[in-house]
Fold each of these.
Amino acid sequence: MRQYVIDAFTDHVFAGNPAAVCVMEKWLPENTMMKITLENNLSETAFAVKAGEKYYLRWFTPGGEIDLCGHATLATACAIMTFVEKDRTEVTFTTLSGDLTVAKKGQLYEMNFPAYELKPVPVTEEMAAAMGGAMPEKAFMGRDLLCVFGSEEIVRKMTVDQEKVRGLEGLLLHVTAPGKDVDCVSRSFAPKCNVAEDPVCGSGHCHIVPYWAEKLGKDSLVAYQASPRGGTLYCTREGDRIRMSGKAAVYSVAGICIE
């Protein structure tokens, strides 16, 4: 079976967020997909099966299946448009989060994702302890916990306690601050998914973009994920949706042997 590893939200390899992509004729047993995911040991492995003009798409982390993943969706679209159906410039995926469409526009892959509704939650000492003593100015809950800081340096230099992050509410923890050269910077931590730090988190920006769009009074943002690998996202809020664009770099094309 063919598998592609693609670095999303970057224009060169060894940066952005790597995702493994398997485009299949039919579904494998779920335990087999989970074994492939664990063997890859990336933050996400995506599995896609064509159905008419659309593709069914599922995402697995080393901790199990997840309901929304931006970088692996971008990577899957890149794999399909680059290797599987080279004439396509748009593909729609049927997922646990509904239909998601990705369109290729020049070097960018533009995704249309749902925005999470953010509810303010109290800032607690437990949050600060999980983030190396850094006390957020504000905190919000969607699917994930979003913590807002006033300084980009705090976000960039933060060292988290993985077990204490695991004890916080929300599936992932996102930390964000205003950026010096971009609209906002962020980092994403996902120990509940057995991922210490997600290098560039698309679904995280479905939390981050609504906050900064409201805060800055502008709908179009350039966001930078300040992980060690780093990645840039071009985002626009449109009501309860987020248009999120990024580049992609193909790292590997391989055959995997599972029989």
Amino acid sequence: MVTSAPRPPKLNVGDLVGGYLGDIGPEEFLEGMEFTDLNLAETDATQATFLDCRWSNVNFGDVEAPTDLNGARISGTEITDCRADTWSMPRGSMLHTDISGTRIGAGVVYDSVWEKVRFINCRISYLNLRESKLIDVEFRDCKIDEIDLDRAKVSRVAFPGSSVGVFQCEGATLGNVDIRGLEPHRISGVHSLRGATIDDTQLMLFADLFASELGITVE
């Protein structure tokens, strides 16, 4: 069976209107706006909608004062060269979104829905996607220290050219998840890897991890 690759996002970001800090607020609907060189520390954007927008060189706050994107919706949007020490967007959704050159410390994005989302050349320390639904998501040329997909539903997700230190998928449902090329030093939830694709080299590299997870002693 051939593993299906993620389908790419489709964006139509044309002429944009300059956006300002004062435009962003809870439950706001913002369309066709460009946000550049902003510091959004402590900004409340709960349940806000960003449609066909562009974010460039935006700081989404530090660890103690992150932007609150709880329940926010992002669609048809480009996010470029941004930073988030803590990216706080639980129960949110992203559709047809491109994220590139962005640094994320802790991604608090559990119970979210992502569809046709692409990360390119991003650095992520920890990404909490527990109980989320991911369809057509690609992490290309990214460095991820730890990704947590526990109890997530994941379909057509791939990591071309990327590295992942810890891969958690306890209780996850995987379908067409391509983890070829990854060399995590820890995998949690080996029994939930059904539906993932690995290569021959990984099968040898992961042998000890699989044995440890399954309680098998190799002598």
